[in-house]
Amino acid sequence: MARAPSTSSRPSRSTSSCSTSRCRGFRAWTCCARCARPAQALEAGANDYVVKPLDFPVVLARVEAQLRLRPVSAPGAGPSVDAETGPGTLLAGKYRLGSLIGSGSFGSVYRARHEDLAHDVAVKVLLTAARNSPEALARFQREGIAACRVKHPNAVAVTDFGVTAGGAAFLVMELLEGQSLQDEMQRVGRFSAPRCAEILAPLCAALAEAHGAGIVHRDVKPANVFLQRTPQGERVKVLDFGIAKMADEDARAGTLTVAGGILGTPVYMAPERFRGEKVDGASDVYSVGVMLYQMLAGRAPFGAPDSDLMAIVMMHLHNEPPPLREADPEIAPEIDRIVLSALRKDPRQRPAIASLAASFARAAGRGDVAEAHERGVAQASDVIREGEAAAAHADPATENMVRRRPGLRVTGKKRGRG
Predict the structure, then answer these.
(1) Are strands 215-216 and 245-246 parallel, antiparallel or unpaired?
(2) DSSP 8-class letter at 258
(3) CA dist 36 to 8, 145, 412, Å?
(4) pLDDT for residue 302 is more than 70
(5) What is the 3-state composition of the chain as percent helix, strand, coil, each rounded to the nearest 5?
(6) For residue 107, what are the β-bridge partners?
(7) Is pLDDT above 60 for 90?
(8) 64: enclosing H helix or E strand
(9) Nearest Cα residue to 236 out of 266, 197, 192
(10) Where does 178-375 sit in CATH, by number?
(11) Residue 45 phi/psi, 5° resolution?
(12) Model pTM score
């Protein structure tokens, strides 16, 4: 469950001094020793914070602010282990931490054992360096709250949250065996359309459930999609709701920001995210479209390993993605059309998340996947309608609470935009 690597360029090892004429843009960060630290920070994950196009001195100041906020590892260093909550530690008197599974910018994930129930779980612990950051703690708490609200078999289940006497915040999740979609993409390269449909349908079903609960994930990417191995076969899981937007948040909080930056992963972010506009489920649709394009073409529509951050931002804002058939003439025109429809600049022109999965599955020749997906979404809508009907016979306060459920738009036939 490690985070996706940065797409920024590797810094040069040159020790030449920095000159004003050279350092005028994002590429200049790699030119000299003075600029190497921001570049290394981006490579280590600081590009989760994306800024709007600004003057270079302002941008550099904001990146340096992120360096103070987030621990930065040296290039090539392995995941860090928090000495206060490392293997062998007993959390909350019941969770015995075992081996380290992975580590991100804010937390480390361990295999753990519930001592009372003799049950294996995954425990995510907020890193010591991030515990004094209100933004980091808010993100950590948000992940637990959002994941608990999305009760879907294709969303990772969070079962507990706590803070130790020493101030270590932790989340307890189901333990998943398998690999991330990112790892699978690195192994396979390009996917067939039918294989994409198998992954897309459960992914979109979980996101549709989240959108119905008033939650926008905002960081859909291959590293946050897990291909779980189970005795019954593969199960797709959506991970990491750490920067999710919930509809019952303060109305003025249109985006989760830190020191002027916008959280997210640039290669997969929708244009409206970079503009700082209010987001809804259509932003997740765009991210799914980028990921689907990458699975089919073997590369993302915008950005390359040597692309700088500003170039990626500008491409998302202004460039149209190349047709998929340029990467593979064998891709059916209808597949191309559906994927590109998810990448429209105007969020109002993108398909709903549920219809995207169904139409793609049919175009890929997987009508069975499309039908199963539609049945699952319909059943979820039925459960919600049953809850509303029960509330109608309850006391007025309960009825109002259900009917005012944020972000929920259900009709007799289908859900609103996902």
Answers:
(1) antiparallel
(2) E
(3) 12, 37, 57
(4) yes
(5) 45, 15, 40
(6) 126
(7) yes
(8) helix 56-69
(9) 197
(10) 1.10.510.10
(11) 125, 0
(12) 0.69
> How sure is the predictor about 145, in pLDDT bands with cuts at 50, 70 and 90?
confident
| 329/341 Cα distance (integer angstroms) | 19
Does the structure show a pLDDT above 90 at 42? no
Rounded Cα–Cα distance for residues 391 and 400 (Å):
8
Residue entry with tokens 């050279």: 22
Residue partners of 185: CB distance under 8 A and separation at least 6: 191, 222, 294, 295
**What pLDDT sits at residue 213?**
85
Query: Residues near 369 by Cβ (< 8 Å), separated by ≥ 6?
Result: 197, 198, 201, 361
| CB distance 81 to 108 below 8 Å | yes
Q: Cα separation of 172 and 138, whole Å? A: 17
Q: By three-state DSSP, how is residue 262 classified?
A: strand
| The token pair that represents 39 in the structure block | 């570049």
Instruction: Say how far apart CA 266 and CA 365 lie, in whole Å.
Output: 32
- pLDDT score at 305: 56
Which secondary-structure segment (H or E) carries 180?
strand 178-180
Question: Which secondary structure element, helix H or strand E, spans residue 391, and what is its range?
Answer: helix 367-392
* Cβ atoms of residues 152 and 146 within 8 Å: no
Looking at domain 83-173, its CATH superfamily turns out to be Phosphorylase Kinase; domain 1 (3.30.200.20)
Alpha-carbon span 278 to 253, nearest angstrom: 9
> Which residue in 261, 243, 312, 311 sits closest to 62, CA to CA?
261
Among 105-109, 125-129, 244-248, 346-350, top mean pLDDT goes to 346-350
Least confident of 32-41, 198-207, 326-335: 32-41
**Model confidence pLDDT, tens digit, residues 311-340:** 888 999 999 999 999 989 999 999 999 999
User: What is the C-alpha separation between 303 and 301, in angstroms, rounded?
Assistant: 7
The mean pLDDT of the chain is 73
Catalytic positions, please?
219
Tokens in use for 50? 């994306």
- Return residue ranges of the chain for CATH 1.10.510.10: 178-375
CB atoms within 10 A of CB 187: 8
> How far is the C-alpha of 363 from the C-alpha of 73, rounded, in Å?
44
The H helix count followed by the E strand count for the chain is: 13, 14
